[in-house]
Amino acid sequence: MAMAALRRESRRFVPFVSSPNPINAFRSTIAPTEEQVGLGVRSISTQVVRNRMKSVKNIQKITKAMKMVAASKLRAIQVRAENSRGLWQPFTALLGDTPSVNVKKNVIVTISSDKGLCGGINSTSVKISRALHKLNSGPDTECKYVILGEKGKAQLIRDSKKDIELIMTELQKNFLNYTQVSVVADDILKNVEFDALRIVFNKFASVVSFLPTTATVLSPEIVERESEAGGKIGDLDSYEIEGGETKSEVLQNLAEFQFSCVMFNAVLENACSEQGARMSAMDSSSRNAGDMLDRLTLTYNRTRQASITTELIEIISGASALEG
Amino acid sequence: MASTAAVPFWRSAGMTYITYSNICANLVRNCLKEPYKSEAISREKVHFSVSKWVDGKPQKPTIRSDTPEV
């Protein structure tokens, strides 16, 4: 009676163990194929599964550590990013932000990260930049890219090689500071001809959410044209300006300083979003590794159990044959 | 009054307002007393690499850095 029960058990296990069809997606890679097992070998080696479990465990350790690192970096940079918002807000109050301005020479400044493994923040900023490029390039207007960061470069090189003007990388080797960003801004101002700069970056909202944002900085001539046309920029006349500079000089200084301030904020916000995104990406990947480990453990135990059962059946049937 | 006279000078020397303000900021930083001075100066490090692209081809990247390569 007991033997019959066992035999039924084994029959249930046999197709599970030696079936070439994968039951789970990952089984296909770990279940040894029939050639590996060879003829006449009834039990399956659990070596493959054990190795796989070890590697998954190691990956999980690494992703957990990366998450911790990102979390501590995020805390430091978040304060700075939030403080730096005070730099561009007065400019927007004074000069306004005009994303819809229509000018001849557009330059898109795409801000991305140097390192990967941080979710989709680089592809979102690249996507927004492409959309802006499409929107602003026409028969009589031209549109160029200035790219900050290794990852945006890798993505934009593929389809818009011709439109790349300047690429800047290794920004985050030292801690981000204003002097550095202002030198970057200075280099952009000196090397690129523009009527309007459109800065694309990810604005940090919370650890899990960041908004792709564009900030527009106009060149002094365009600012002057706009201010003559009235609107918000026209309010500049109501300010009392010290010194004997003419209005165009003041506007030029202001536009340059605005650009460096907006860049500073954008770079910080993007770095902050990068760490946040990396944190959540690493969190979910260590969770996935945990899930995978659970499934592997289950498979491992089942395989082991099945081989034990087979051996038991062999012993019992041998013994009963001797008795009979 | 000094700024009134200075504007055309630094502008005609090919500087932008950003360079000008950075030089000014550096001067102010140098006026700090010692423990704060070196701290403030060490905070403002510049390091990045720039490469200009012409006709879809990258030119040789130049590294802008104020710390010597190790």
From TrEMBL, chain A:
Q: What is this protein called?
A: ATP synthase subunit gamma, mitochondrial
Topology relative to the membrane? Peripheral membrane protein
NCBIfam families with a match to the protein in the record:
ATPsyn_F1gamma
Gene Ontology MF annotations? proton-transporting ATP synthase activity, rotational mechanism
Q: Which keywords does this chain's UniProt record carry?
A: ATP synthesis, CF(1), Hydrogen ion transport, Ion transport, Membrane, Mitochondrion, Mitochondrion inner membrane, Transit peptide, Transport
Sequence similarity: Belongs to the ATPase gamma chain family.
| InterPro entries with a match to the protein in the record | ATP_synth_F1_ATPase_gsu (IPR035968), ATP_synth_F1_gsu (IPR000131), ATP_synth_F1_gsu_CS (IPR023632)
Where is the protein found, in the record's own terms?
Mitochondrion inner membrane
Source species: Tagetes erecta
The UniProt record lists the keyword Transport: yes
**How does this polypeptide assemble, per the annotation?**
F-type ATPases have 2 components, CF(1) - the catalytic core - and CF(0) - the membrane proton channel. CF(1) has five subunits: alpha(3), beta(3), gamma(1), delta(1), epsilon(1). CF(0) has three main subunits: a, b and c.
Q: Which domain of life is it from?
A: Eukaryota
Function according to Swiss-Prot or TrEMBL: Mitochondrial membrane ATP synthase (F(1)F(0) ATP synthase or Complex V) produces ATP from ADP in the presence of a proton gradient across the membrane which is generated by electron transport complexes of the respiratory chain. F-type ATPases consist of two structural domains, F(1) - containing the extramembraneous catalytic core, and F(0) - containing the membrane proton channel, linked together by a central stalk and a peripheral stalk. During catalysis, ATP synthesis in the catalytic domain of F(1) is coupled via a rotary mechanism of the central stalk subunits to proton translocation.
Q: Name one GO cellular component term.
A: mitochondrial inner membrane
Extract the HAMAP family matched here.
Answer: ATP_synth_gamma_bact
**Pfam families linked:** ATP-synt
* Gene3D superfamilies attached to this UniProt entry: 3.40.1380.10, ATP synthase, gamma subunit, helix hairpin domain
Q: Transport: present as a keyword of the record?
A: yes
Q: What is its main location?
A: mitochondrion
TrEMBL record, chain B:
Extract one GO BP annotation from the record. Answer: proton motive force-driven mitochondrial ATP synthesis
A single MF term (Gene Ontology): proton-transporting ATP synthase activity, rotational mechanism
Is Mitochondrion there in the keyword field? yes
Q: Establish whether keyword Ribonucleoprotein is in the entry.
A: no
**Location of this chain's protein in the cell:** Mitochondrion inner membrane
Please report which protein family the annotation says this sequence is part of.
Belongs to the eukaryotic ATPase epsilon family.
Quaternary structure and partners: F-type ATPases have 2 components, CF(1) - the catalytic core - and CF(0) - the membrane proton channel. CF(1) has five subunits: alpha(3), beta(3), gamma(1), delta(1), epsilon(1). CF(0) has three main subunits: a, b and c.
Identification of the protein by name? ATP synthase subunit epsilon, mitochondrial
